[in-house]
Amino acid sequence: MAVTQEDVARRAGVARKTVSNVISDYPHVSDRIRKKVLAAIEELGYQPNRAAQNLRSGRSGMIGLAVPELDVSYFAELTRLVVQATERRGLTVLIIQTFGDLTREHASLNGFGHQRLIDGLICSPIASSGEDILNRGGGFPVVLLGEQVSVAPDHAGIDHVGIDNVAAARTATEHLLSLPRKRVAFVGASRSTDSHMADLRLAGYRQALAAAGVPLRPELVFSVNGYHRRDGAEAGRRILALPPEERPDGVFCANDLLAQGLMRALHDTGYRIPHDVAVVGFDDIDEATYSIPSLTSVSPDKAQIAETAVALLLDRVNGSDEADHDTVTDFSLVVRESTAGPRR
Amino acid sequence: MAVTQEDVARRAGVARKTVSNVISDYPHVSDRIRKKVLAAIEELGYQPNRAAQNLRSGRSGMIGLAVPELDVSYFAELTRLVVQATERRGLTVLIIQTFGDLTREHASLNGFGHQRLIDGLICSPIASSGEDILNRGGGFPVVLLGEQVSVAPDHAGIDHVGIDNVAAARTATEHLLSLPRKRVAFVGASRSTDSHMADLRLAGYRQALAAAGVPLRPELVFSVNGYHRRDGAEAGRRILALPPEERPDGVFCANDLLAQGLMRALHDTGYRIPHDVAVVGFDDIDEATYSIPSLTSVSPDKAQIAETAVALLLDRVNGSDEADHDTVTDFSLVVRESTAGPRR
DNA sequence: GCCGGTGTTTACCACGTGGCAGAGAAAGTT
DNA sequence: AACTTTCTCTGCCACGTGGTAAACACCGGC
Question: Each residue of A199-210: pLDDT tens digit?
Answer without folding.
Answer: 999 999 999 999
